[in-house]
Design a protein that fits this description.
Blueprint: E1 2-3, E2 9-11, H1 26-35, H2 42-52, E3 56-65, E4 68-76, E5 82-88, E6 94-99
Parallel strand pairs: 1-3, 2-3
Antiparallel strand pairs: 3-4, 4-5, 5-6
Length: 103
């Protein structure tokens, strides 16, 4: 799978943890979740994705959806389509695949 030099990882997680005054940066929240075994590392998610949906990754977001952390990966397929693949961040299971519109 090809990766652009700078994969965008927009982490949309809760902004405050444990009553702290200053919210942790998003990457620290994600790193903590990986260290605690709550989610898979992004590199592992991308390897799993490559097996099912090869292409060039253009954007990655980590979001909550119905109480589950979900990696949303946008990629350009070998035939030039832009798709979004939602994957369970804890298991790597593909939850949804959508073709993105040009609009």
């Amino acid at each position: 799978m090809k990766h652009l030099p700078a994969i965008i990882l927009a982490m949309l997680l809760p902004s405050a943890v444990g009553g702290q005054q200053e919210p942790l940066p998003d990457f620290e929240l994600a790193q903590g979740a990986v260290e605690r075994g709550e989610i898979l590392p992004l590199a592992q998610i991308l390897r799993l994705l490559e097996g099912e949906h090869p292409g060039t990754v253009v954007e990655v977001e980590l979001e909550y959806s119905d109480g589950t952390r979900v990696y949303e990966v946008e990629l350009i397929t070998p035939d030039g389509r832009l798709i979004e693949v939602d994957m369970d961040a804890a298991t790597g299971q593909v939850l949804k695949v959508e073709e993105e519109d040009d609009d």
